[in-house]
Design goal:
Helices cover 70% and strands 3% of the residues. With 706 residues, it is mostly helical. Strand 1 and strand 2 form a beta hairpin. The N and C termini lie far apart (95 Å).
Length: 706
């Protein structure tokens, strides 16, 4: 019994921290309408700043707390308010992108400033004081402090939100911003106050929990999963229910630590318990329509058959160029462009066409890699479609809860699923189910080989690179044709309005299961291709955090555009790998670029994104025969010169990049150049032949003047 009470005290102290963090999350959502995925990252940054002040620079703990909570956290809150101010008028998807970008960026910034290879710890508050003894239970002063702080936060927030004018303004702003302004209140000031208080609470939680765990950017940021669970208990509105949820999460973690049987299969369950609880809470608790659900949806481009086929040919050509120009070592690194391209492409039918937000695509790619590694150990060709089927089946299982979830709730559910895979499923040793041996990463890495096609085993990296390029081309063409098919049109309708889709006879369950399965199968193929490229992969390469930059790059490209797959692969496996090699001083800056781009381009989510501009520029190149000829001839000359060792790889790359920058501008100037002098209307048919267009022009002119 004493042990049970002792674990309960530990759980309650942890729950107090989760309650503080979760309260800040609920506060910002209730008062601004923005669900802040970067809330935990804000607490993580505050914890690192506190460590720097106390351990790094030797300031007294009390003074460091005053600096962090009195200076850093308010300024950080104002920065959040400024960065997320444009999201106030956007839908859930755009808000999600901006906060996910902040989450990814802050983790990378922390790793940039504080070397992750250096171990850091923080002493607990009042560690030198003798602990309190309540009967047979020992309570440290740090644990007592966390509980007191949690109670003070609960009382203070209740008074602020429901007993003060500022709190009323904060709650009213998210309901009707314009109406609040008419009453004489300042909505912007209310939002700033909300963000400052929310980040303050995140900072308090970060400082309190940092002495209990390792100071690691990713670990501290993802502790927010536990706070997410507590907030969902309160349905993102009720502070008392949020505190109750925090108690459930904290005690569950503590009792699992104390009473979970010791074997090779269950340690990860304790780590994944908050994510599992989050999934259960999302599925069981009723939650109304999220605020800010009205979205300014952009039309999804309808690709042509000819254009899609041409683009597929370009993808294969790029694969052949890389396979013939790069060395074996370079191909291992940069040949993964096409594997990441396939993973990026998996977002297009799911999020671009159907509007279903998923943050677990890279985790599903890991399932595809594992399935192919075990089924195709000797390169059996059928193992690749089998891996896609297995990944697609997992996607169908995800679609079942997705029928109940949407917007931010769906993003939370898929993120929780990815965390469960990271912390538990991928760490399991091999096990048997009904006599069938199942092995995942088996607490290590798995080896993959190229498939045997038409009697030929793909063994070299160059062969696998070309094969991956062909796979990306085929999948891209298929997704483009899907957009033109009836099923693609139904997915667009599902994205526009689920209620209207169901009212008009659409089957929501079947539609979501099909699109989730298709997307997961594509992601599984990408994971298998990635494993073939590297020959060996581990679970860490398919983690939730590793998948965030891919998601952000796809957003930058445009989730409704098929070309975003190649764009994502080229950006993720190209410059993000090449620039640190050429310019080591820019390594950390380059890694932050996807987060910065995600914030800048969030308005293009579910729209055209950056590729819309590139398509417009290159359309002029393809229409102009002269410029098109220069492009083809120049690239052919560069390629032949490189194969003959007349030039090196740097010259080839510089020449190709120069062509990519110069030729669209040249084609644009030629398109805008003045044509032959316009023939007056009265001389049409005399100075040049009469055409049908002339008659239409005359009819239109007469109609507008009459």
């Amino acid at each position: 019994m004493e042990q049970f009470i002792a674990f309960g005290v530990v759980g309650l102290s942890t729950a107090a921290i989760y309650a503080v963090i979760g309260s800040g999350l609920v506060l910002t959502f209730t008062t601004t309408g923005v669900f802040n995925f970067a809330h935990g990252a804000a607490g993580m940054m505050s914890a690192f700043v506190y460590w720097q002040l106390t351990v790094g620079w030797g300031l007294p703990a009390a003074l460091a707390v005053v600096v962090v909570l009195g200076v850093f956290a308010p300024l950080f809150g104002l920065a959040f308010a400024q960065a997320l101010a444009p999201a106030q008028g956007l839908g859930d998807a755009e808000k999600l992108v901006m906060t996910v970008a902040l989450l990814s960026g802050l983790m990378l910034v922390a790793r940039w400033i504080w070397n992750p290879d250096v171990a850091r710890t923080l002493p607990r508050f009042f560690a030198e004081q003798r602990p309190l003894h309540v009967g047979a239970v020992t309570v440290t002063w740090h644990q007592a402090l966390t509980m007191v702080v949690a109670v003070a936060v609960a009382v203070g927030l209740r008074i602020l939100l429901y007993r003060t004018r500022t709190g009323a303004e904060m709650r009213a702003t998210v309901d009707d911003r314009a109406l609040v302004g008419l009453t004489g209140a300042d909505p912007r000031r209310a939002n700033r106050v909300a963000w400052i208080l929310g980040i303050e609470l995140a900072a308090v939680g970060g400082i309190l929990i940092a002495p209990m765990v390792a100071l690691d950017a990713a670990q501290l940021s993802l502790l927010i999963v536990s706070a997410y669970s507590a907030a969902i208990f309160g349905r993102l509105r009720s502070l008392p229910m949020t505190f109750l949820g925090a108690i459930v999460v904290g005690c569950l973690e503590s009792y699992l630590t104390g009473y979970l049987p010791q074997n090779a299969y269950l340690p990860g369950l304790r780590l994944a318990a908050p994510a599992l609880l989050l999934l259960v809470a999302l599925l069981l608790f009723p939650h109304g329509r999220l605020r800010g659900r009205d979205r300014r949806l952009s039309p999804v481009h309808l690709p042509t058959v000819r254009g899609s086929a041409l683009f597929a040919g370009v993808v294969v050509l790029v694969g052949v160029l890389l396979a013939t120009l790069l060395s074996e070592s370079d191909l291992i690194t940069y040949g993964s462009i096409f594997a990441f391209g396939v993973i990026g492409l998996s977002f297009v039918p799911l999020a671009g066409y159907a509007g279903q937000i998923s943050l677990c695509q890279l985790s599903i790619a890991g399932i595809g890699a594992v399935a192919y590694a075990h089924l195709g150990a000797e390169g059996q060709w059928w193992a690749l479609p089998a891996a896609m089927v297995i990944a697609g089946t997992v996607g169908a299982l995800i679609a079942l809860p997705a029928l109940r979830l949407s917007g931010v709730y769906l993003a939370l559910g898929t993120a929780a699923f990815a965390v469960v895979l990271d912390r538990w499923i991928f760490t399991l040793p091999s096990f048997s189910v009904l006599g069938v041996e199942i092995a995942l990463f088996d607490q290590g890495s798995v080896n993959l080989v190229g498939p045997a096609l038409f009697g030929t085993q793909l063994t070299s990296t160059a062969q696998i690179t070309v094969f991956a390029a062909i796979a990306l081309a085929v999948c891209g063409f298929a997704v483009a044709m899907l957009r033109r098919a009836p099923f693609g049109r139904r997915m667009i309708a599902l994205r526009d309005s689920e209620a209207a889709y169901a009212t008009l006879g659409g089957n929501l369950l079947a539609g979501k299961m099909l699109v989730f399965s298709l997307s997961a199968a594509i992601a599984g193929l990408g994971g298998a291709l990635y494993g073939m490229q590297l020959r060996s992969v581990s679970a860490e390469q398919f983690g939730f955090v590793a998948g965030l930059p891919i998601f952000l790059i796809v957003v930058i490209a445009g989730l409704g555009v098929v070309g975003s797959g190649l764009f994502t692969g080229a950006a993720y496996a190209g410059p993000l790998h090449a620039i640190p090699v050429l310019f080591p001083a820019l390594t950390n800056l380059v890694h932050v670029l996807p987060a910065l781009g995600g914030i800048a381009f969030s308005g293009g989510f579910l729209g055209q994104g950056a590729l819309a501009h590139l398509r417009a520029e290159w359309a002029a190149v393809l229409r102009d025969r002269l410029v098109r000829g220069v492009l083809v001839g120049g690239l052919a000359l560069l390629w032949l010169s490189r194969l003959a060792d007349v030039i090196n790889g740097y010259v080839f790359t510089a020449g190709a990049l120069t062509a990519a920058v110069v030729l669209p501008r040249w084609a644009g100037r030629r398109a805008r150049a003045p044509r032959a002098a316009r023939v007056p209307v009265e001389w049409l048919g005399l100075q040049r032949p009469w055409s049908t267009a002339d008659k239409e022009m005359l009819d239109r002119g007469i109609a507008t003047r009459s």
